[in-house]
Amino acid sequence: MNRDMLKLRKDPTIPPSAAATVNTSTTNAFPVSPRLGNTGGDSRGNRSGRQRTSPKGSGAGNNAPSNSASSNASVASTQHPTTNGGPAVGYNTLGSPGYLTGSNGLGIGASGGGGSSAGSPLVTGNGGHSQQDGTGPSGNQSPLQPSTSPISSPNTFRFDTNGALWALSASPDYASVAVVGRDVLKILNVTEWGAEEAINLKAVGVRNNFAGSTDVKWGPTTGRDAKIATIGTNGPIVIWDIGTHNKIGRTIKEHTRSVNRICFSPQEPNLLLSASSDSTIRLWDLRVRDKPGVIMDAKDIVREVQFNPTSTHDIVAGYESGNIQRWDLRNPLVGEKKFMAHMGFVTSLDYHPSGRFLASGGRDRTIKVWDMEDEKRREIHTIPTIQYTSKVQWRPNRPYQLAASFKDESTVQVFDVRRPYVPLHVLYQHDKDATSILWKDSDVIWTVSKDKTFASALVKGQTVSADLLPGGKAAMNCYGQLAFTVSTKAGPDSFERDLVPKPGRPNAKAVALDGSSEPMVYRTRQTGGVFDCELFNHEAFIYCAQNYSMEAGNIREVCEHNSNVAWQANKYRDSQAWTALKLFFSEMAEPAIVVSQVDAVAPEVTTSAGTKEEEQQDDDDDIDTLEAGATKPVVRSLFAIKVLDAPIKRNWSHDDTIRNMLEFYADQGEVQMCVTILLVLAEEEDLPQFDLSQHWFSSYIDLLSRFKLWSIATAVSQACKDDRIHTMNQDSTTIHTSCSSCMKPILTRAPSSSGFWACDRCRKVLSSCSVCHKTVRGIFTWCTQCSHGFHLQHAQEWFSQSAECPTGCGHQCFPEMLKIQREQEQMSLRLETPDNETLHDPSHPHAHQHFPPRSVHSHPQQELASNQGHSTLRATDSDAKASSPLSYLPYNVV
Amino acid sequence: MSYSDYGDNDPIYGDDLADEDRESRPRLMLMGLRRSGKSSIQRVVFHKMTPTETLFLESTSKINKDNIHSFIDFQVWDFPGQMDFFDPTFDTTAIFGEVGALVFVIDSQDDYMEALARLHSTVVAAYRVNPNITFEVFIHKVDGLSEDYKIDTQRDIQQTTTDELADAGLENVQLAFYLTSIYDHSIFEAFSKVIQKLIPQLPTLENLLNILCANSGIEKAFLFDVISKIYIATDSSPVDSQSYEICSDMIDVIIDISSIYGRAAIGAKSQGYLDDQQDQEDWSHQQDGHDDYEDSNGGGHGHSQAVVSNSSRAGSLNNQPAQSGGNHEAFSVIKMGNGTVLYLREVNKYLALICLLRAETFEKQGLIDYNVHCFKEAMDQVFELKRAERTRREMEANQLLEQQHNGLYGHG
Q1: What are the structural domain ranges in chain A?
Q2: Nearest to A345 among B159, B210, B238 (CB)
Q3: Model pTM greater than 0.90?
Q4: Distance (Å, rounded) from C-alpha A678 to C-alpha A683?
């Protein structure tokens, strides 16, 4: 092989990694010919096969490296060289249909000079960037090119129509497609290699005052009867007889408001359904020109209507209100099953080819899949989407997959309902919003867009976007534990293998979309673990948080206290830091005296008074350097003690030391020390200012909250002088209620159907009445000691009869009752011994009140007061049971 | 500025003429249990009360009739929650006889079983009297609910209600359900849909807007009632909440700016709704000097980098009488950072047309201006019919009255 004869092509638009792959594979065996050729015309040296791996129209280079390797590998087994330039399709031995084309030089292919490469096809699996070889005006390079853009691979092209497109519909044989838009009404002939304009109906439309169309449907009839139906932007449905002559066959103007969707019956070719904003669905028989349509009164704006593909009479309609309703054409007077499907209008419906399931897209940004034979009116799959869908359609021959286009979104996404959160494929076909989609077959999808183009894309071989997701995640909690997951993917395209039966109760009626009886869901194969890093001594942190004093002002004592606390928490460095702080500020204990540094030459010690001497002595005790007797005279020679009247100033500044200290702790992440020191020194006037002090405070408060030290967090926030921290708990305070048995917060936004009255986790009724076992809604009364609660009325009734708790816990919630009962007994027995003092519980606040049993009904006010006291006052009563365990009480008083 | 009292003081549509005017005035009833939020809704939507203020509303003790004088005239009746329809003294015929829409408010955060029972009895009673009534159910206070819980609540309420009505033999009664909250735009959107059902000209307006959108490259067009921020018509493409919200916010912006920069007319502006005498006073500001027109036009393109550039101007056309026919016109354009243009034009003193369009379409602004001008003329023609109809009816009524008077005199 003469290398000089052959030029290596390297397209600058190919990303480096992809280009490298190309170069490797080509230079190894077969250099690439730069010669351009037309499809199928040139017979010389076009022994090139090429596998499509990823026909990405706009060439967003995000999948090249990974794919190229695999496609190269798979192609190695492919032995289908085409012998001339005609397009050919082959199947590689891996079983997946891959397109091998003999497009002479259109792809990055090889032209074997002199037959050296004959018989061995060159394949460049460069992950879908191969169409960028500049052989023609490719669609993604020149979106405004007004002609067909032949691109190297079949079924991947774009065609510009000179106007924003809204809808498309294909002829029954998929040889032609009608595309409509604001000022477009065209029929295109589509082949594997591109599209060309066949008929432009716009002129006729304009003549008849139909500027554009919002929807188009191609009738199932063929030949001379071929029809398409369009919805004019100004209202009427227009039937075009395109089989014989391109003219308007019929105009339907009966709808009083605009028509939103039309649909041909797949079984009865002349039946057309129309859904309109005038709250009707109408059925037209196009064979009878003047026959008025059958009217179905939907009583709601109808956005979408669809035929069941397996039935002649079963249709389904989607409404503005978000309802979906089934209608039977044999009984147009009364609609059948109607169910609430979406919040906001239904944008799109598509019947599953099986005729049993229905996919619906709604304004609530979901695609839902419904089993229309199930009575439950519950969706069986929900796919959350980035925007609301403009069009959804099931993929032929792939029972679990559907494609959707979205409002204000240029991509088209293919989903597998078993894995709803990650789209299977994302197709970057358009520059602007894709408006509608249509599956040509199970591998090719046609789309139209507001960027004025009609595009075709090959879905087969597209990168599975979920494979691009990183499988590992890690997170750390406040106890220093690191939780992590590692994906154990079986390899690319392992989706099918990771399916598991849907968890939950076995449902005999459940049917999977492919007809098998076991619904499957995707389960990510991940291994996880928790790793104890021991980076953070949380016990010491909690101990210090609970015991540190944050009191400002009395620096000496507070520092001493904190030093001890830190010592006990085994934080020796912190303990020393506190000691040092204490020393720094100790000299200020007697403000009248200032130790000042004088010139080193001054040998004498000036002592003003005896008390000062003592103070100096005191200082000496504290300052280590002064403690040694030998150094004393030396040090003394350095200091002079003066009495200053005013103002008092520290003559040697600790600012730098304190600054260093705080910065050291901030570097260590010890916000606890930073914050506590700042708070203790808060009253110091010339405390250095720190830019980050606000962050220290907020992270310390955050950390305290994570350890559930709420009171300390509040104390810190209140002690802080910074306004933003100080007011932190003064605005938008949220009080959550928790389940009293499992402590799970009962969120106001509870997503459960139980709402506020039952705990989701432990399935218990919250704040139930111990007497009637129903939820107390309203005033909840409880015993503060056994914490059993009641309806107020039930408590009154019960405790007018008994002193014991109605739950049988044995607690005497209402000892007065016992006393009263005794009194009554004694009264009845006429015993005069006043020994009922023995029953008197001195700690009880109501001990001296006597409630005759009958007074419950005769003095409800008084009883109410006593009951309230019973429930609330005692909790705050310092006298009563300060040591009694305060169990958590659900707070349900509304 | 306060719109709080518009309506009742109206010199023309006062209560004395209410009987005569009743036919042309659809009546809208707000019903529901006590504390479900009826009065709050009324205050927020029609009286510009901020949602937080509604916490301090007293509970309603008697039927509160509120005449709304906007583009369409209608009455809102706010019912006290504790009203009992089975009270024999309660005249259902008089109450429900001429109601256009009955809005039933359900507090979704409460236990709504009682509300559903009340709704059922209300619907049964009202339907018996007036089968033409449209029933609207507001599932209210949904701001506190999660998305999942919202749809579950709606599904539950809808299912229970329709099943119960079907059991009562009223399958034909159509209830429309809306999830609403006064803390966002949902209540305005729900009211828009309710009001739209009461507008007989809606299909015509919708069609006009469709044609306008199709011919001007407009993505979405709303016809807003400026006071209440209710849209009375839109083109037939589905309304997504973002576009509604941004248009609604635009009205707020324009009103705020006009109250700052507007000239003296603004003082009258807030009363302009009250006073029919100020027929031609527009609600927008009117800047001095016609050079603003050139300014904002030329500057518009320069603002493309700004996230929101407001080239709001108004009244400029009144310096060009040949074009405007002497009408004041408010007009404003806001260019958004994402390439969307908001285009507002006053249609009449109550209504404003707001269009959402792409920046590249807006390059043909002259065409759009012309199309909107045509749209306005068409609208005028549509409502000229209504006005003529009303005048005719008033004249007939007067004639009848005169005849009666004459007759009386004759007899006397």
Answers
A1: 1-167+176-205, 470-532, 538-690
A2: B238
A3: no
A4: 9
